[in-house]
Amino acid sequence: MALILIVEDDVEMNSLMSLTLRFDGYEVLQAHNGAQAIQLATEHVPDLILTDVMMPGLTGHEIAHRLLESPLTANIPIIFVTAKQELEDRLQGLELAVDYICKPFATPELMARVRAALRMRKMEKDLRAVNEQLARLAVTDELTGLCNRRGFDSEMEDELWRARRFGYPLAVLMFDLDRFKQVNDTYGHPQGDAVLKAFAEVLTHSSRRIDKVARFGGEEFVALLPATDATGASTFAEKVRTSTEALRIDCDDRAKPPVRVTVSGGGAVALAVDQTDASIGEVAQELLQSADRSLYQAKAAGRNRVEVHIVEEYSRKRPAGGAGPAHEYVSNLAQAF
User: Fold this and answer.
1) What are phi and psi of 103, to 5 degrees?
2) How far apart are CA 335 and CA 142, in angstroms?
3) Which residues are bridge partners to 78 per DSSP?
4) What are all long-range contacts of 99-103, with beta carbons under 8 Å and residues at least 24 apart?
């Protein structure tokens, strides 16, 4: 059952409300002043608070204001239970609370208002949970659990801003499972899905905590590697390639041998995002296009291989000396991982 906090300085009234609520099956916490109420609310985060308005120390309104200031307690519904019956008092109270009960009250009225407030509380929690789930689904690939294209685009822009600010390089790698259509045609789409999941796990296990990996769609995947130069990008891509080549994905039909696949990869490395006057969107587009071209070259060269290139086309203000500070940053960062 729900947990309800009663805040009432009158001991008899506090006990009466507590017994009434417990008799109806609710769990109850009791506070006799504002300071105690805030402490209990913070420690236990009750589902509902019933509070008097006029009390020594903090008033009910002050308690409500304090609770609204904290993200932990801001969403707890409050019902004011008070002898102040003037219309102005009720209107003021309803600015802070979901309901307002005047003393003396009938027990059935109190319980009806408590149940109504708790129903509203549950509906709000359910709605928040649904919205959070929808937000996750909007940026997540349902099959593999990786980011989808929408989520990756957002992550890439954020990472490019960081690379521009701190002057470190950024690598983008695209991967495409070789002859994947043959897997679907030979083993069926459910088995093809199993292959996609297995490759997603390869990408996840090969990446660092700061890397971002995503499914672009179909059998195409992408990885974003902050503070990574061409050598680091090639090492990562080769690790993914060899791990994929070693995969053996069991078939549902045990009479068939395990599925074996290979992957081709193409990468693009921006050494000096901070040295360009191109927009972040232009840099992102150039990196993705260059990685895609590199992937095409790997496919054309026989598949099951990787190609990584440095992107300089967008950089109109790059100094002749290269990106020494960025390389120094990479070296220092590598030691931290």
Assistant:
1) -85, 145
2) 35
3) 49
4) 103/13
Residues 323 and 270 sit within 8 Å (Cβ to Cβ): no
- Beta-bridge partner residues of 6: 30, 50
In the chain, how many H helices and how many E strands? 11, 10
Residues with active-site annotation: 219
Alpha-carbon separation of residue 238 from 89, 177, 232, 242, 305 (angstroms): 71, 14, 10, 6, 8
What letter represents residue 287's amino acid?
Answer: L
Q: Do domains 3-138 and 149-336 have the same CATH topology?
A: no
pLDDT for 164-215, tens place per residue?
888 899 999 999 999 999 999 988 999 999 999 999 999 999 999 999 999 9
**What does pTM read for this prediction?**
0.61
68 C-beta neighbours (distance < 10 Å), count: 14
> What is the mean predicted confidence (pLDDT) over 283-305?
93
Distance, first Cα to last Cα, the chain: 47
The domain covering 3-138 belongs, at the CATH homologous superfamily level, to Response regulator (3.40.50.2300)
**CB contact at 8 A, 48 and 21:** no
Cβ neighbours for 132, distance < 8 A, ≥ 6 positions apart:
none
> At 89, is the pLDDT very low, low, confident or very high (cuts 50, 70, 90)?
confident
Mean pLDDT, rounded, of the chain:
87
Beta strands in the chain (DSSP E): 3-7, 27-31, 48-51, 78-82, 99-102, 170-177, 212-217, 220-226, 263-270, 306-311
Q: Which of these CATH numbers, 3.30.70.270, 3.10.580.10, 3.40.1570.10, 3.30.70.260, describes 149-336?
A: 3.30.70.270
Residue for token pair 């020594």: 56
What are the residue ranges spanned by the domains of the chain?
Answer: 3-138, 149-336
Q: What is the per-residue pLDDT for 256?
A: 81
Distance, CA of 108 to chain centre: 43
SS3 271: coil
User: What is residue 94's predicted lDDT score, i.e. its pLDDT?
Assistant: 81
Query: For strand 220-226 and strand 212-217, is the pairing parallel, antiparallel, or unpaired?
Result: antiparallel
What is the 8-class DSSP label of residue 221? E
